[in-house]
Structures are given as structure tokens and as C-alpha cells.
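@channel sequence for tomorrow's demo:
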Amino acid sequence: ESRAANASNKEINIQWYIPPLAKPSIYTETKVLLLYAYNTKPVKISNIKTFSSTSIFSGHLWIPLARIISLREKLSNLKQQVEMLMQNSKSLSSASESISFLEQSETLKIISSKNPKMNVEKVHLDEKTEEMAKRCLSEVKALLSVVPALSLPLTEIPFDVTLQSIASLEDMFDPANGCIITEESLFNWIISLFH
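C-alpha cells (generated this afternoon):
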């Protein structure tokens, strides 16, 4: 069945539209259109003419391109920091445990596979990385809030930080591509910003 006719429980689909003819004047900045659609319950569309659902929502936001590019770079740096924290914690735990040769070779196979599964275990952040995450997420909140000027900086991280959640946010702010977000705590936080 078509992916367009089905959606799992709690899924956000993000697409960007960069108007080809939009030429900003010297007084305005280039903006791109964020298109989003999400569902809060599983969706299966069998007949578009008779379909109606109270669990599907959509909308759009105009966002300055320069801010998106800047935020994506910060999210990329945050993802690298989270990856380093994960590597350090794995190095510490593997140093204290003996790993058999077979387990080591299995680990190498997983790391070198072309499509490794993104890590979804919660990452314990050090103080520096936590502050970096709060700054990035405060910027995400400001960009996605209906009234950005009223958006206050975050004092705590509003969802479980995993490598997957940070990678999803980085993908979300890639104007050349779209993304689908299904991780529940990240999903809940993002849709709360759209209201």
C-alpha cells in the first residue's frame, strides 16, 4: 500500500518550499516555507472522496533561510557532540567489561553496515552539551512558535535526548530535503510549538 495513504501513530511530515521567483529586496531577507502535516492517531485512507479525520493537522510557516542554515549548523555540531559523548561512555563501559572476539567482530559489522540503525537510547549530557542543546532547542522553539517574539529560552530540555532525536531535528531543518519524525517525545514537543 502507498505510504501517502497510510501513517503510523504520531508522525510529522516536514517539507520545505523555496519559491523560485522570490527575489528579496535589499531590505528583506530570503524566507522559505515550512510545510508540515501530522497525525495523532494511525491513518489509513482508502477513498479520498469520503475521507475525513479529526486526527490529521497541517500548516505552514515562513522562516528566514539564514536562520535555518545557522540552526542546522548548530544542530550538526550538537549531534557530533552527542556522538562523542556516546563514544566516550561506550569506551568507558567496554574498558570495564571484557568483550569476546565474537562480540567485537559483530560490533564492527554493525558500525560498518551501510544503514546502521540510529541509536535511540537516552544520552546523559555533560553540562557543556546540555547548555548547547538548550540554546539550539530555544532557537527551534523561537522559529516554530506562532508568536516568536514571546518565545522564552528553555531552562530544561523538553524531550529525551537520543542520537535519533538530534539527527531528526537536524534533518528537519535541511531545506533541501524533508523528513518524517516519529519519536514520541520529540513529536509531542514539536506539535506543541505549532499550536
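heads up for whoever presents: The longest helix spans residues 65-96.
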